[in-house]
Amino acid sequence: MKILILTFSCVILISANTFGQTDSTKVEGPLHISFLSKQIIPLGLITSGSLLSIGEIKYKLQDKIPNTNNHYDNYLQYAPMVQIYAFDALGFEHKNTVFDQSKYLIISQLISSSTIHLLKNTLNVERPNGAHHSFPSGHTTNAFVNATVLYHEFKDTEPVLAWSGYFFATGTGLLRLTNNAHWLPDVLAGAGIAILTTNLVYYFKPFQGFQPFKKNKNLTLTPIITSGALVIHCQF
């Protein structure tokens, strides 16, 4: 139960601290029931992962998982992120600009990785292979953040492409299990934290007004040739 409470606390506190520093005029509002009702899956993953960490259940589950020995999960976790920019480059219609995509991706990664780092170092759960800092899975969290950003960007225009990132994210989690690097609860909690964090970022849209590359309507660029050189005169 302590793991469950600490997990929820870490996600909420780190997210609140981040969103609390954003421009309040850009926030849509408090967490409404309509939004919370859509978080059943990530909350369920976090809860189940936390509960399965208690007792001997995870050891029995790990015994039933086949063993592999590869490093594909180190690369597979980034596949959904590659998909995002590849689909952008191919001209598929997406929700936000590339800059906003990157902004929300980075923010989601920062919040989720901070949560994972805090939990890993606080709980210091032993891995199946004997190493430390098992709960939750960082690889799985990273993969599902990437997949959830992909989902939000393309769900309204290219639903098949939007969901495809979860195939790679799930594959990353499974490889963490078969490579004996994590327990099942680690993977479940990592996926839940990633999805919930990214959903919160897309709900609140932190730093929405930060648009350094947005065109300034009052900006005038005038080319001037002087002394054999071309000078661009900027006037606001």
What does this structure look like?
It is built from ten helices and two strands, in the order H-H-H-H-H-H-H-H-H-H-E-E. It is mainly alpha-helical. A two-stranded antiparallel sheet has the order 1-2. A hairpin with a 2-residue loop joins strand 1 (220-226) and strand 2 (229-235).
Outline the fold blueprint.
Blueprint: H1 2-19, H2 33-36, H3 40-52, H4 57-63, H5 73-76, H6 79-89, H7 98-123, H8 138-154, H9 159-178, H10 184-204, E1 220-226, E2 229-235
Antiparallel strand pairs: 1-2
Query: What is the number of helices?
Result: 10
Major sheet: arrangement of strands:
1-2
Topology as a string of helices (H) and strands (E): HHHHHHHHHHEE
Strand percentage: 5-15%
| 3D shape | globular
Q: What is the SS-derived class?
A: mainly alpha
Largest sheet: 2 strands, antiparallel
Number of strands: 2
What's the helical proportion of residues? 55-70%
User: Overall mean pLDDT score?
Assistant: 85
Q: How large, in whole angstroms, is the Cα Rg?
A: 21 Å
Gap from first CA to last CA? 59 Å
Low-confidence stretches: 20-27, 229-234
